[in-house]
Amino acid sequence: MKKVMLDCDPGHDDAIAIMLACASSELEILGITTVAGNQTGEKTFTNALKILTLIGEDLPVARGFDKPLFQELVTAPEIHGETGLDGADFPAPSVKPCEAHAVNFIVETLLSADDPVYLVPTGPLTNIAGALLLAPGVKEKIKRIVLMGGGVLESNKTPAAEFNIYVDPEAAKIVFESGIPITMVGLDATNKALFSLEDIEALSRLSGKVSTVAARLLTFYAEQLEKFSGVRGAYLHDPLTVAAVIDPAVLDTRFLHVDIETKGEFTRGATVVDLYGVTGKKPNAEVSFGLDLSKFKGLVFDAIKRLDERWA
Ligand code: RIB
Ligand code: CA
After folding, report:
1. d(Cα 48, Cα 10) in Å, to the nearest integer?
2. Residue from 67, 2, 57, 68 nearest 32 by CA
3. How far is the centre of ligand 1, averaged over its atoms, from the C-alpha of 312 (Å)?
4. 164: left (phi > 0), else alpha (psi -120 to 50), else beta?
5. pLDDT tens, residue by residue, 266-304
6. Rounded Cα distance, 76 and 12, in Å
């Protein structure tokens, strides 16, 4: 089994990513950390506890930064609602949270792990950068960072940037310059990881405890996406990131150099991908361009069916 830590900002697609990770027999999840992004730090933390309670998973959850390293926090209530998980009701959280700050929890968990660990951030990279700043030696215990963020030709927060990188570009720069193996699961792939309205309907018809909530979440998320970007369906950005750890063959990638723009008036948060090697800089990330959509959808449906069976 692959040892994994999730760092997330639930968030509708983060919620499905947590479900996929918890249901996978390929992954041993050492813990979950949360960060401000889609919603405030308090709300994303509470949401992680709610999701784990719903699926009956008792994992350590540690709360992280409430704002980016230097920038003011930007959230996404227009997509994820005031709670960050609008559209579905959750049981009151019964999972006992960690007292430690996420950065300390990440460092301590990595240092005590027997084998190197996959870090799977699906929100702004503030906690990950914090851990690398606090204890640079943890790099030896990180197998790979498989992160949702960025884009080559695609963006969604500004014409130049994807949300997670835009929120904390300085943190992203620290991560991409760390020398740690990185897989960048960016919008060029995740915007193709679209759950159609028919897929959401199929999820709803499973009528289980978890599938019903997942379908309601995705229905709300799809409604907001249609309002704001005209798309019909739900982009499963974060679940594709987890799927890329479960089965790397689900993703098409190229090994390229990526720089993070932190100073541009119009380009803050851009992932500047050297497609043709013109900079002469060594590649530092496996950059995603596409996916095996049917394999991906199968992983998501199978995972949610397994979680339903926990309550059957
Ligand atoms: O740009 C998409 C990313 O931003 C996803 O991780 C979504 O959850 C938000 O965090
Ligand atoms: Ca996210």
Report:
1. 6
2. 57
3. 31
4. alpha
5. 999 999 999 999 999 999 999 999 999 999 999 999 999
6. 11
The full 3-state SS of 56-89, as one line of letters, equals CCCCCEEECCCCCCCCCCCCCHHHHCCCCCCCCC
123 CA distance to ligand 1 middle (Å): 6
**Reduced to 3 states, what is the DSSP secondary structure of residue 125?**
coil
Question: What token pair was written down for 304?
Answer: 């949610």
198 strand-pairing partners = none
- Span 215-232, pLDDT tens digits: 999 999 999 999 999 999
User: Model pTM?
Assistant: 0.98
Binding-site residues, ligand 1, Cβ < 6 A:
9, 11, 13-14, 37-38, 122-123, 148, 156, 162-164, 237-238
Q: What are the residue boundaries of the structural domains of the chain, listed by start?
A: 2-310
Residue spans of beta strands (DSSP E) within the chain: 2-8, 27-34, 61-63, 117-121, 142-148, 182-185, 194-195, 234-235, 251-260, 271-274, 285-291
How buried is residue 155: exposed, middle or buried, by Cβ count under 10 Å (0-12/13-18/19+)?
buried
CA atoms within 13 A on the CB side of 160: 17
Q: Look at the block and give the residue holding tokens 């994994």.
A: 4
Quick one: tokens of 195?
A: 């759950």
Question: What number of other Cβ atoms are within 10 A of residue 301's Cβ?
Answer: 16
The residues that bridge with 5 in the sheet, in sequence order, are 31, 119
- Under DSSP, the state recorded for 99 is S
306 close to 246: Cβ distance less than 8 angstroms: no
Residues with catalytic annotation?
Answer: 237
Let me know: does 68 contact 40? Beta carbons within 8 Å. Answer: no
Q: What angle do CA 35, 38, 40 make, to 5 degrees?
A: 60
Percent pLDDT > 90 in the chain is 99
In CATH terms, is domain 2-310 a member of 3.90.245.10?
Answer: yes
